[in-house]
Amino acid sequence: MNQPILLEESTPFKLSRVLERLMTSLPRNASHHDHLMAALIVLLAEAGFWPYEMTVDNTVKRWHTDLLKIPEKLKTEDGIYRMKLSLPILPHKVCKLIAIPTGDVLVVNLIPPSENVTTGYNMAIQTLKYFNPHSSDLAGRYINLKELSFRFKDGLTTPLRTDLLQDEGIINPSLQGLPVEIKLHILKMLPIRTVRRIGECNRELYSLSKAPEIRRYFKT
């Protein structure tokens, strides 16, 4: 069986190569939150966010996850996880991740640079839903990784990455990152009933569905 590449492709029998490597680099007394943080570091890298020190020395220009490692002093004396992050194409936009353990819950905060992009994102993660410390099998300790990947990327990394790229005027492959003109063109290609339904689930698309050019288009 080929070893999975992405974290979400991990199985109960085989972890993704980079997650397995980071997991085995943890000390023997690592907590369940420590193991979850290893998984989150992998997800951050998959979304383009690398530890800041690696982007500064240009290590990740080769974009190889075999170079990824858990930052030194990730966990402070008060038990809080702190790390600086940036996109290699925007090394000057330094973000912060602060993860605070509260019982078996890890509250993860992704904080953007203070200039221009100011909206942060946060998520409370039930650590034991994704890590089973009682499993004797290495791969079996991580569970529900596909769900974790979708939640983390949809709720934290994709929105922040979009905000950062938009601030720099860089088009990116996401709904938020598309120019308004393209969104309007997409709406014109859909049946009017679909346009109305889309407008019910997204605030921006609702506003666009009410735009004069869209209303005129469907009246013709």
Automatic annotation (TrEMBL):
Transmembrane segments: none annotated. Residues 172-220 form the F-box domain. SUPFAM superfamilies: F-box domain. CDD domains: F-box_SF. Gene3D superfamilies: 3.40.1000.30. GO terms for molecular function: protein kinase binding. InterPro entries: F-box-like_dom_sf, F-box_dom, Fbxo7. One of its GO terms (biological process) is positive regulation of autophagy of mitochondrion. This is Uncharacterized protein LOC107271584. It comes from Cephus cinctus (Wheat stem sawfly). The lineage of its organism: Eukaryota, Metazoa, Ecdysozoa, Arthropoda, Hexapoda.
